[in-house]
Amino acid sequence: MRIIEVNDYQQMSKRAAEYIINKVVQNPSIKLGLATGGTPIGTYKSLIEDHQKNGTSYQKVTTFNLDEYIGLSSDNKNSYRYFMNDHLFNYIDINKAKTNIPSGIAPDFQEECHRYEDIISRHGGIDLQILGIGSNGHIGFNEPGTSFGSKTHIVNLAPSTIQANARFFSRIEEVPTKAITMGISTILKSKEILLLISGEKKKDALCRLLNGEINESFPASVLKNHPCVTIIADKVAIADLEVQCL
Ligand code: F6R
Description:
Elements: E1 2-6, H1 9-26, E2 31-34, H2 41-54, E3 62-65, E4 67-69, H3 80-87, E5 99-100, H4 109-122, E6 128-131, E7 153-156, H5 159-165, E8 178-181, H6 184-188, E9 192-197, H7 203-211, E10 229-234, H8 235-238
This protein binds fructose -6-phosphate (F6R).
């Protein structure tokens, strides 16, 4: 794993956007894996600014999001489909038909998981997957204890994840308790992974990721088995960890 240390959230976002733009320019038909949550919002903002200023085009890009809440439709402001439209897709020239997110209202969720896993494979897999990390080490919505061999599946969200995500809802009772997520093996099949980590609340997770064992009790630890992971982390998250940064 390669670590890039930056000063703050803003720099992390700018650096991550530059990283992604560079890949899109090199390969206009790139398959991008995308995340939601607070961490990538600044990155998406920078991608939009660059698109408006420099015209980087996403017309041929295909995207696959990590996850979606079960029970929320695309017009629900808290759905991840709505999030992606609102924070990125509506403001760049991407073809929305090429943007993939599991359906939170599929008639058969098991079937939806198979469909999603299959569509990623049929596209030849993900070239670059963007990830955030939960303070409990989750990646996507793969909570502690998830098998490293898991494919796209249905999850019961951990109480700590529901609590953390309640900030996006008006009441904690509105946070869905289930979601569909790419599995850990789905994520690991990506050719390259860019993990973004910012802030005090992620300090312990980063420390455990770097210094702890590879273990299903801390899902992100599996990233140490991947040959091409870049972490962009800010100073607060890195704190006084003894890491070799670029
Ligand atoms: C989002 C996702 C999650 C988040 C994680 C961190 O699609 O799959 O794993 O990346 O929960 O969330 P934030 O960025 O809000 O701290």
